[in-house]
Amino acid sequence: MSRKPVTGRFAPSPTGSLHFGSLVAAVGSYLEAKSVNGSWLVRIEDIDPPREVAGSSAGIIDDLQRFGLSADGPRLYQSNRTDAYQDAVNQLQASKRAYPCGCSRKDLPASGIYPGTCRDGIPAGKQPRAIRFRLDNSICEFDDRVQGHMSESPASSCGDFVIKRADGLFAYQLAVVVDDDFQAITQVVRGADLLDSTCRQIALQKALGIEQPDYMHLPVAVSADGKKLSKRDQTDPVGQKDPAYALRLALHFLGQQAPMGLSLDSLWVWALEHWDSTRIPRQKEIIPARV
Fold this sequence. Notes:
By secondary structure, the protein is of the alpha/beta class. It has helices at residues 20-34, 56-66, 82-94, 154-157, 172-182, 198-208, 243-253, 264-274; strands at residues 7-10, 39-44, 76-77, 98-101, 130-133, 140-144, 148-152, 161-164, 187-191, 214-218, 220-221, 285-286. The protein has two domains: 7-80 and 219-286, HUPs (Rossmann fold, 3-Layer(aba) Sandwich); 82-141 and 148-173, Glutamyl-tRNA Synthetase, domain 3, CATH 3.90.800.
């Protein structure tokens, strides 16, 4: 039986310029795929126009090229994929795994966990707004290649969740599952800030008959006060002139002790020869060091 070809991806949202945390995810996903002669793709997750910053998609692509990160296929833009997302919603509704919901955010309890108000029909006085995915009571378990064994009951931790919003936009959880399947992604390497989304995505994969990829959630770069590094952080090394410096910082952040003094091209040669994912710190957050 032949093994499925390895395909990884980097999937930024165009909400600002590439920053150090994004660079870490791009470098980690690229090296994890390319170190085993796999393919690496880029997807622009532009399905939330109210949050997008004009020009940031092009800026991210320019920065990836500046760092020597070239995709092995055409870029996918989620804004062009709405028909595929609607097809998935239709499939889930036809199988009774999704239903219309008339609740707004103000109807949710303080916990944010959806109590199932519209599971058996929209109560009198409410109108359909969003579409929610119907969770069962199963326990989700998976082995993350950095964070270790994970176990969660999505029904308890979040409740039935929105897959199509009241404003007609499709939710991230649905779009990422549909597109990972469309692009034949076999490994998802991303920041640990998305770890909580994984069991919801696995539930959707099972309901849609989609094969589950391998997961690797990298530590998130945070400031000294524990806040995720901002795309507006003026001290971000990605914005400095020398991309080799920022790349070496990203490799160091991922536990790869690259020598000093190498050019950008030489750094990539070194990284591909020495990449070892077992050296990635088993942490969810790290304060980046300037080395």
